[in-house]
Write a structure and sequence with these properties.
The chain is of the alpha/beta class. It is built from eleven helices and 19 strands.
Length: about 475
C-alpha cells in the first residue's frame, strides 16, 4: 500500500502537465474564437518575411520599355530600317510569319542616373532620382498578347479561367496586420480588361476579395468606400444598432454551430463595423502636411489625382494593409498607356505619374517604411521596338519588357536580366510573370508551392504548376 502514496510535490509535478494541457486548449479555443470573429487576423508566414506588405503601381496598357528604362543605342542607330519580326502580334496583324517592320528609335533622350548609372529617359526625371533604390528587371515576359488576357494573367496567374487575384491570395495567406482593416485594397481599378476579376476572390472565401476605392479615370476625390459614413444616425445610435445585430447573430449561432457560411456573414458585419470606425481617419488626406501634399504633386492639376492615390496607398500601408494596388488607367475601352498610333502621348501619362511615384518612394524611405514595404511598378506587358503599321506608335509586346521593384528584400541600384539589342525579347535571366509572382510571395514569407486551396477536387495556387524564385535579385 505504501507504494501507492506519494508526496504533495510529486503530485503537483505529475499534475502540471495536465494544467499545461488545459491552458493550451484554452489558448487554442481563444485563438479559434478570434479567427471566427476575424478571419483576416494576421497569420504566420511559411518562412521569415523580408517584406510585410506590397504596394503595386499598375501602369495599365503597357508603357514602352525602350522609351523609359531599357535604353537601346542600336535601336537609335538603325532607326527606320526594316527587319523581319516573327511574333504573335505580327502574325495576328499580317497573317504571315517574318513580316518586315520598321525599327523606331525613342523620341526621348536617355541619360544615366545615380551611383548605379541606370539609364532613364527624360519621361521620368523625378523617378530617375531614385534609381539607386530600384531593382530593374529587364527580362520580363508573360502570357497573352491582348490587354484582357495579359491583364488577367498579371493579376491572377491565368488568362481564361476564373482564379483568385494575387491580392486575394496574399490576404488568404497572411491576413491583415490591422484587425480593423482589410488585407487587400485596390485603388481606382479599371472596369475593363478583366474588371472585378482582377481584384476578385474567385473560389477563396469572400472576405479575401479586394476592397475597392474609386475607379480608373475618375477623380481621386471619388476614391472612397461607398456608404462608409452614416450621417443620419449618431455614433451612439449606430453602436446600439450594431450591438442589437450582434445579439441577434449570437442567437442564430446557438443551434447552428459550425455553419461556416453563417460564420462568414457574421464576421463580415464585425469587420464592416470596425472598418467603418477606422477607415475614415486613414483615408482623410487632409491630415497630412502641406509639404507632404507637395511631395506627391497634389498641388498641381496634372498630378493631384495619382498623387492623392499614392499618398492614400502609403497611409494604408502604414496602417497595416498587406497588399495595396494603385491603378493608373482609363475608364474607357483603351487602356492609358496603349499608344498604337500616338507614342508622344506617353509624355502626358508620364507627367501624371512621375512625381507621385518619386514622392511615394521618398516618403516611404524617410519614414523607415521602405525597409519592410515592397514597391512594384509595372504593367501587363511592354511595347514593340518597331512602329505599328509604319506609323507613330508601338504595338503590344509580351516577349520582353521592364518592371522594377524597390524596398524590402531586393537589391538596390541593381539591373537584372536583359532583352535583345532592340528591346524586343527577353534573352538573359528571363523572368516569367509566374516567376515574379513566386518571388513576390517569397519576399512576403510565403512559399508559392505551399500556398494552395482545394476546389473542385484539386489544389490550386497562384503560380499553378510553374514559378521559380529569382534569387539573383534578393539581398
Amino acid at each position: 500500500m505504501h507504494g501507492l502514496f506519494f508526496s504533495r510535490r510529486r503530485a503537483l509535478k505529475l499534475a502540471s502537465c495536465g494544467f499545461g494541457a488545459l491552458a493550451f486548449s484554452g489558448m487554442l479555443a481563444a485563438e479559434e474564437i478570434k479567427r471566427v470573429s476575424n478571419p483576416l487576423m494576421a497569420k504566420r508566414p511559411h518562412h521569415p518575411a523580408r517584406a510585410k506588405r506590397i504596394i503595386f503601381l499598375f501602369m495599365q496598357g503597357g508603357p514602352s520599355q525602350v522609351d523609359t528604362f531599357d535604353y537601346k543605342p542600336v535601336l537609335a542607330k538603325r532607326n527606320g530600317e526594316k527587319m523581319p519580326f516573327d511574333d504573335a502580334r505580327v502574325i495576328a496583324n499580317t497573317g504571315k510569319r517574318g513580316s518586315e517592320q520598321t525599327l523606331m528609335q525613342s523620341p526621348w533622350k536617355f541619360r544615366q542616373y545615380g551611383e548605379c548609372g541606370q539609364p532613364v529617359s527624360e519621361l521620368f526625371p523625378h523617378m530617375a532620382q531614385h534609381v539607386d533604390k530600384m531593382c530593374m528587371i529587364h527580362s520580363m515576359h508573360t502570357e497573352g498578347v491582348a490587354h484582357g488576357p495579359a491583364t488577367l494573367f498579371l493579376h491572377t496567374g491565368a488568362t481564361n479561367f476564373v482564379r483568385p487575384s494575387m491580392g486575394s491570395w496574399i490576404s488568404y495567406a497572411l491576413g491583415s496586420e490591422n484587425d480593423n482593416l482589410p488585407a487587400f485594397v485596390s485603388i481606382a481599378p479599371s472596369p475593363g480588361n478583366g474588371g472585378a476579376r482582377n481584384y476578385g476572390n474567385a473560389f477563396l472565401p469572400p472576405v479575401h476579395q479586394g476592397t475597392i476605392l474609386g475607379s480608373a479615370g475618375r477623380p481621386a476625390t471619388e476614391a472612397k468606400v461607398r456608404n462608409l459614413v452614416n450621417s443620419t444616425l449618431s455614433k451612439s445610435e449606430q453602436l446600439g444598432q450594431f450591438e442589437l445585430l450582434r445579439a441577434l447573430n449570437a442567437e442564430q449561432t446557438v443551434d447552428k454551430s459550425g455553419d461556416k457560411e453563417l460564420e462568414a456573414v457574421i464576421s463580415s458585419y464585425e469587420l464592416a463595423w470596425r472598418f467603418q470606425n477606422n477607415a475614415p481617419g486613414i483615408l482623410d488626406l487632409s491630415r497630412e502636411t502641406e509639404a507632404t501634399h507637395k511631395l506627391y504633386g497634389m498641388d498641381h492639376k496634372h498630378t493631384v489625382d495619382f498623387g492623392s492615390q499614392c499618398l492614400m496607398a502609403r497611409r494604408l500601408a502604414e496602417a497595416g494593409v498587406r497588399y495595396i494596388q494603385v491603378t493608373y488607367g482609363d475608364a474607357g475601352a483603351n487602356p492609358a498607356w496603349d499608344q498604337h498610333s500616338n507614342l508622344p502621348k506617353h509624355a502626358e501619362h508620364a507627367k501624371r505619374v512621375d512625381k507621385p511615384v518619386a514622392g511615394l518612394l521618398q516618403d516611404l524611405a524617410q519614414r523607415g517604411l521602405l525597409d519592410d514595404t515592397l514597391v512594384w511598378f509595372g504593367a501587363e506587358f511592354g511595347r514593340t521596338p518597331y512602329s505599328q503599321n509604319n506609323g507613330t506608335g508601338r504595338d503590344h509586346n509580351p516577349n520582353g519588357f521592364t518592371t522594377w521593384l524597390a524596398g524590402a528584400g531586393v537589391k538596390t541600384g541593381f539591373k537584372y536580366g536583359a532583352s535583345d539589342e532592340f528591346g524586343h525579347k527577353a534573352v538573359d535571366d528571363k523572368m516569367h510573370m509566374h516567376d515574379l509572382h513566386a518571388t513576390l510571395l517569397h519576399l512576403l514569407g510565403v512559399d508559392h508551392k505551399r500556398l494552395t486551396y482545394s476546389y473542385s477536387g484539386r489544389n490550386f495556387r497562384l503560380t499553378d504548376v510553374h514559378g521559380e524564385i529569382a534569387t539573383g535579385i534578393l539581398t
